[in-house]
Amino acid sequence: MTSPIKKVCLVGANGTLGSVLLAALVQANCFDVSILQRSTSSSTSSASPSIPRIIVSPDLAVDELTTALAGQDAVIAAFPLGQGDQHLRLVEASFHAGVKRFIPADFGSCDAADALPQEYLPLYRRKTLVRERCEAFAARPGSAFTWTALVCGHFFDHGLRHGLLHFDFATRTAQILDGGHARASASTLRRIAEATVRVLQRPEQTSNRRLYVQSFNPTQLEILAALEKAMGEKWTVRQVDSKAYLEDARKRLESDDEEAVLVAVEDIVFVLGALDADWTKRDGFAMELLGLEDERLEDVVEEVVAAYRAEAQR
Fold it and tell me: Do 294 and 287 contact (CB within 8 A), yes or no?
């Protein structure tokens, strides 16, 4: 039987997802939580500045990380992939340090191992390399190392508010892909955090598995309807052909302009997460396993709209 997880180290605690993960881990009141932080970082967590920090050099060298992570039961990677090398070193160090459970930075917006993500973006190929490294260490004879990949779809509340889902609050304009009828799983930040806590609380059932979670599984047209209801006005719809859009974004990846490349990456992620992310059809759909139920789309959209209006009034 897998032993309980008590000591949890979070890497990337000040990020968009990391800050919500940290709050959920603390609120669960069943973990000893610490934060791995680079020595060059000056940030402190607003969720709980008293949480212990493990300070390491910025390059995240394996030997130093191994020493720093000794005694930890679980490590959660919640910082950007970048070139992926730091994540690979973090996996290796976790294994050598005797960490029981590693949660890689899989999360959203689509399953990195699927064909289209692999084709379009190095980001997803790097995610797959990290997952494969986890699998390799877990398969070693006598290894106590295990992993869980949580795949959650688009970060719905964050993505909706900040235009990443291509619903533009300022202009009340929605880009709708291929008619808008495809269903895609998406998760609020709190759902991802909740699912992560549940994984750690169920170490045996979630060991060495790719698990899929969601807040809901709407179509783009259903999101649009919820937005129009919450805002009390009609939006302008721009129909988009996904294949042409992806090819245009692929060409923009070759630009010398870093900002243009970043936008192209975000556009590709938007399409893949809207058209290739129906987790209800996947083996590993883990809502029942983790004791989770869908949130109500209209309620979440109303929360996002309320936040938008409050910000606009400042």
Answer: yes
CA atoms 226, 229, 230, 232: torsion sign: positive
The pTM score is 0.94
Q: What's 155-184+216-279+292-312's CATH class?
A: alpha beta
The Cα 155–Cα 190 span in angstroms is 10
- Please indicate whether the domains covering 7-153+187-212 and 155-184+216-279+292-312 agree at the CATH topology level: no
- DSSP, res 285: B
CA distance 46 to 295: 26
8 A C-beta contact, residue 138 and residue 94: no
Q: Is the peptide bond before 109 cis (omega within 30 degrees of 0)?
A: yes
Give CA–CA dist 199/202, Å, rounded.
5
CATH of domain 7-153+187-212: 3.40.50.720
Domain boundaries, the chain: 7-153+187-212, 155-184+216-279+292-312
Residue with tokens 């190929």: 125
Please, are residues 25 and 33 in contact by the beta-carbon 8 Å criterion? yes
Tens of each residue's pLDDT in the chain, 314 residues: 567 999 999 999 999 999 999 999 999 999 999 999 988 876 654 445 689 999 999 888 999 999 999 999 999 999 988 766 999 999 999 999 999 999 999 998 889 888 888 988 888 899 999 999 999 999 999 999 999 999 999 999 999 999 999 999 999 999 999 999 999 999 999 999 999 999 999 999 999 999 999 999 999 999 999 999 999 999 999 999 999 999 999 999 999 899 999 999 999 999 999 998 999 999 999 999 999 999 999 999 999 999 999 988 87
Helix axes 85-97, 122-138, angle to 10 degrees: 10
